[in-house]
Each structure stands twice: as structure tokens, then as C-alpha cells.
Amino acid sequence: MLILNFILFQIAWFACVLGAANAMPWLGVLVTVVILIWHLYKSKNVKSELKLLVYTLVIGAFLDQALLSFNLVNYVHHGWHQSIVPVWILALWLAFGTTLNMSLAWMQKRYYVSFIFGMIGGPLAYLAAEKLGAVTMTGELSFVVLAIGWATITPALLYIARRVNIVKR
Q1: If I label 54, which of 32, 48, 72, 88 is the partner at 20 to 30 A Cα–Cα?
Q2: What separation in angstroms does the CA of 67 have from each of 39, 89, 116?
Q3: Which helix (H) or strand (E) holds 62?
Q4: DSSP H or E run through 74
Q5: Distance between CA 169 and CA 154 in Å, rounded?
Q6: DSSP for 15-36?
Q7: pLDDT tens-digit series, residues 73-111
């Protein structure tokens, strides 16, 4: 199940990024919705997973909106107004949320590891998206802010995932 979760996240990532790069921002949303349905169907506690997905969406949207608002990242084909974080980025955050209790769950108590993972993995994902034509980074400061943002968000989301799992309401 862990490997399938990892593969499904990669499929969502590529659908979102390549969809945006090819003027089809809603393609990634559609693929992600199918993956979310599958994820929730297989979930042992749908309510907890939905809560975690909402936390992930809100926190992730805040980061990407800040990147957009401060002109650190330019996104192509938003799916709606250019001043709002793209729909496909929101889908990516939801897809990332599916990994927190599955393929990334091993990091839930390893905050230093998740800090490093986020610090390196976040900027690398944006760099890959840039190479594929979905985003444009506006300078070196963009990568510094991404590294700090992801280094903060990754352990925070894993902590929230752990807490949501403990407090099953």
C-alpha cells in the first residue's frame, strides 16, 4: 500500500505539472480527485484523513499564495485568476496530504529528517516543475524561501498527521 501511495502521488504530481505546462490546469485536478477518492476509500478513518487533507490544503495554499504574492514564483495556466494560487497547485497539496499517513508516515516522529526532507525535496519539486514548464522561479531568493517554507511545513504537517491520528474525533 505504501508503494502504491507513492506511485499515485507521483502520477498526481506529473498530471498537475504537465497539465499546467500544456495549458490544461484542470487535468491534474481531475487525476487528483480520482486518487483522493481511492485514498479515502482505502482509509481506515475517513474523518481523520479528511481533516488532515484540509489542514494540508490550507497550509500549503498559504505558502504558495505567499510565493505568488511576493513574486518569488510565477505559475502558468492557473485555471482561474492569475493573482490566486493555481488550481493545480491546490490539487498537488491535496495529493501531498495523502502521503502523510502512508508513504511519509515513517517521518512522523523524525522531525529532523522531515526538516531536511522538506528543505531539499520542496525546492527540487519546484525546480523540476520549472524544467517541465509549469512554473518560473524568479531568482535564488525563491529557492531560499522555498527551502525554509518546506523545511517548516513538512515537519508541521507530519506532526499534525500524527495528532489527527491520535485524536480520532
Answers
A1: 72
A2: 29, 12, 20
A3: helix 46-69
A4: strand 73-75
A5: 23
A6: HHHHHHHTT-HHHHHHHHHHHH
A7: 999 988 888 899 999 999 999 999 999 999 999 999 999
Q: Can you name the residues that pair with 75 across neighbouring β-strands?
A: 135
Instruction: Give the integer Cα–Cα distance in Å for 2 and 20.
Output: 27
**pTM strictly above 0.85:** yes
Do 156 and 59 touch, CB atoms closer than 8 A? yes
When computed from its CA atoms, the radius of gyration of the chain, rounded to whole angstroms, is 15
Q: CB 75: neighbour CB atoms within 10 A?
A: 22
Q: Which residues contact 145 (CB under 8 A, 6 or more apart)?
A: 67, 70, 72
d(CA 134, CA 111): 30
